[in-house]
Every structure is written in C-alpha cells, then in structure tokens.
Write a structure and sequence with these properties.
about 375 residues, alpha+beta, Jelly Rolls, nine-stranded antiparallel beta sheet, eight-stranded antiparallel beta sheet, 4 helices, 22 strands
C-alpha cells in the first residue's frame, strides 16, 4: 500500500477529507441481479420446467425473480450453461428446430424496471454467442421491456430494448419507442461481430435522466463506445422484462440464427436505478478480469457501494476491502496481488484498498484526528490571547 506516505500534513488531510465528504452519495440502487448460477426448482419436479414456476433468483433482495420460458418445442431444455463467465450461465437455446423456438427469462412487470427518460439507470450483462451476425435472420435481443404489439423493435409499440441487428449492418442497437416516435442508436462496428463472436463481452448501458445532452452511454468491456442524446422520454409499459426475448414473450432470443449451432450464453445480469460512472464501469470489467480476483457483479456491487458511501469496510471472497484516501492511479484501475489490492474510482484521491500493508486511515479516523488537532490549536490560541 502507498497511502500512508501521501497523507502529508493536517491541511492536506483535511482537504482530502472535505473532497470525500462532498462527493459521498448513496449506495448503488440495484433493482435486479441474476447470477444464473442455479435454477430454483419451485415445483419440485426434479428438473427445470419452462413455462412453469421455476426461476433464476433475483439476488438484489427485491424479489423480482426471472421465470424460465420457452416458445414451441426447444430441443435443449437445460437452461444451465456449461460455458460461463462466473460459475454457471443462462443457456439461450436459439432457433434449433428451424422455427421460432428459443428459451428466455421473463420478469413480471415491476415499476423497478419501468425506466423512462426521467430516470437514471444502468444495465450490465456478459454475453457469448456461437455465430456470426451474417443475415437479417440472425437478429437477436439481449434484454428489454417491449410492448407485445411490437415486432422487430418498431411499429407503434412502446418500451426499450438492447438488441443486435443482422445483415450487412452487424450492429448492436439501443432502442426506445414511446408509441409516437422511435429512437434507435447503433454502436459503432467494424463490419464484423468484433465483440461477441465466441467470446465473452461485458455490455454496460447507462442513462442520466438529468442530463440534457449526451445522456446515453454504451460501453463494451469497460470502454466507452457510444455517447448519444435521447429525446424520447416516455417508453413505460406494463409488459414483462425479458432477457433473450422479443415481441412481448414471442419471437427471437438473443441468438436466433437459422442453424443448429445457435446456442448462446448470458451471465451476471444487473439492472440499476442509477447511472454508473465511466470509472465504475471500467472497474466492473477490471475486477472481473483481474487474474487474482474475477469478481462477479455481486462482489463488485459491494465495492462500488463502499466507495459511494465514502466510509467503512466490507469482506469479499476472503479479502477485507476498506474505504481509504490518498490513493493514486488510473481511473477504474485495479492494482496489486495476493491480499494487497487497490481500486481507483475517482480522480480526487479517493479509492478502495484491501487490508494489509501500511494502514490508511479511513474517513472516520481522519475526522477524529483533524478535529482533535483543531481543538488543541484553538485551545492554545485562546490561552495565548487571554494572557
């Protein structure tokens, strides 16, 4: 650790403390979180039955469980994915039988996921696909809340969705529609599926409801790829929230090629009711990719919340992370190994660190220290003046 050498003098310590206090904010507002590690066999059938009560649990604590669903006859009924980013994943069996057959999850309508242009939100999800997006028939749907009357993310339907397009475009697209106007914003592309052809990619979508311009951002693997301005403000509806579904609860999954290798995988999905910053998005990716960590969203959430709270400590996977001041480094960077790590999330000298190495005072310690010295100084000044 390097923090103890950087807290030089009371004035510097108080300046850092004031900066920390000024930017402290509430912990992350996680609305849903699906790790997809295991299915809850709610009907005790001894297996996983689609179109039943079996579900992936919402680990956010809000109880918005994702029910297992399928359309028509799907050859592969096992929703557990052998290929996974963390533990297990959700296997989205695509168009395996030549028809509109796929598996997906359906979260019943909830206001927690009914985001509009007045709200802050963020989505984070890892995806893996087995096919190239070479024809219009290979379009797909990652996640969203779309009206059941809408097909192909168009028409007079209402809602929002993140999807992929087929044909020569090979685009990934964020779309909103308030039944009178549609806005579709495409991520840049190089003419190929450069992000999710047989490899894991972390997609993060953020929206700042208070920003008049540049309110929508899309990141891939922690790197900003798109900044747009959404002007449509009302895309609320009462439809379920779907992962790997389309047109209400019909049509395509996120892998919908006309061939039998159409399986794909979705892992570690989270929806938040606030806007992740660029460093936080990069921190999510770096925590997942760090050789000594490999933290899923559920672990990273604790660290980001600790940072936003501006105080305290939390145990994650056998390591104790403490809020600290005086750290330096690149934004979103995770450094260290063994039991000694640092995570930089802001550019004003604040960060997170694991226990071990030189002790870095937490804000509460600095408050007591600073006020104590200030009290002694005032006491001495009053005695001198009285004399």
């Amino acid at each position: 650790m390097r923090g103890s050498t950087r807290l030089v003098g009371l004035a510097a310590a108080v300046a850092v403390l004031l900066a920390v206090a000024a930017m402290a904010q509430a912990a992350l507002d996680t609305r849903v979180y699906y790790s997809f590690d295991e299915v809850v066999d709610a009907d005790s059938s001894g297996g996983y039955t689609f179109n039943s009560t079996d579900y992936y649990a919402d680990l956010s604590g809000n109880g918005h469980n994702a029910l297992l669903k399928k359309d028509n006859t799907v050859t592969a009924d096992n929703p557990i994915g052998a290929t996974a980013k963390f533990g297990n994943s959700f296997r989205t069996a695509g168009r395996l039988n030549g028809g509109n057959n796929h598996t997906y999850t359906s979260t019943p309508h909830t206001a927690d996921l009914n985001f509009t242009g007045n709200d802050d939100f963020s989505f984070s999800v890892w995806t893996y696909a087995h096919y190239e997006n070479t024809s219009w028939g290979h379009r797909g749907y990652y996640f969203g809340k779309w009206d059941s009357n809408g097909f192909d993310l168009g028409g007079t339907s209402q809602g929002y969705a993140f999807s992929r397009r087929g044909g020569s475009s090979k685009k990934h697209r964020w779309t909103v529609n308030d039944s009178t106007a549609q806005e579709a914003h495409d991520l840049p592309h190089d003419g190929t599926d450069q992000w999710d052809k047989e490899e894991w990619a972390l997609w993060t979508i953020t929206f700042d409801g208070d920003a008049a311009t540049d309110n929508l951002k899309a990141y891939v693997n922690g790197t900003l790829q798109m900044t747009k301005t959404l002007t449509t403000t009302n895309w609320a509806n009462t439809e379920p929230f779907l992962i790997a579904g389309r047109r209400g609860e019909h049509q395509r999954s996120f892998v919908w090629p006309a061939k039998t290798t159409g399986d794909g995988f979705i892992d570690d999905f989270a929806a938040l009711g606030d806007t992740l910053t660029g460093p936080e998005v990069l921190g999510l990716f770096n925590l997942a990719e760090h050789a000594d960590l490999g933290y899923a969203f559920g672990d990273a959430e604790k660290l980001l919340s600790l940072h936003r709270d501006g105080a305290g400590s939390v145990d994650v996977a056998g390591l104790t992370w403490s809020y600290a001041t005086g750290l330096t480094g690149n934004l979103g960077e995770v450094t260290g190994s063994g039991t000694d790590f640092e995570l930089m999330l802001t550019d004003n000298g604040t960060g997170l660190t694991t226990a071990g190495g030189p002790v870095i005072p937490e804000p509460s310690t600095l408050v007591i220290w600073a006020l104590g010295l200030l009290g002694l100084a005032l006491y001495g000044w009053r005695r001198k003046r009285s004399a």
